[in-house]
Amino acid sequence: MNDSVLQELYQVVLGRKSTPREGSYTCYLFDKGLDKILKKVGEECSETIIAAKNGRQEETVGEISDLIYHLMVMMAQQNIPLEAVLEELSRRSQKIGNLKQMKSVDRET
To answer: Which of 6, 30, 44, 46 could form a cystine bridge with 67, CB 3.0-4.6 A?
Structure first.
């Protein structure tokens, strides 16, 4: 799979934003606004974590898919193009030795 599935999904989300359809869940989220969208992103993130912790791969895949969808709705609401995220991921994939160093805290001061 390449990113065409993500592109197609994002175009559907953008289409619902620009041309609302009655009965569309995506349109419902846009209508309710950012707080509702962010609440759904948080819920799906938590559900993804729980599914992964439970070790149920099929359930985890479903929750990851829900999370990606809700992230795309958030991106569209915030006018963040999918290309910007894909470019950032591409840029990050070129990094080698990206392990962040842990900071030590001087508890004596």
So the answer is: 44
Residue 64 CA to residue 57 CA, distance in Å, equals: 10
Query: Does the structure show a pLDDT above 60 at 35?
Result: yes
In this structure, the number of other CB atoms found within 10 A of the CB of residue 10 comes to 22
How many Å apart are CA 7 and CA 45, to the nearest integer? 21
**What's the rounded Cα separation, in Å, for the pair 109 and 102?**
19
**Per-residue pLDDT tens over the stretch 52-63:** 999 999 999 999
Query: Using an 8 Å Cβ cutoff, are 7 and 76 in contact?
Result: no
Enter the CATH code of domain 4-83: 1.10.287.1080
Q: Where on the phi/psi map is residue 76: left (φ > 0), alpha (ψ -120 to 50), or beta?
A: alpha
**pTM listed for this prediction:** 0.84
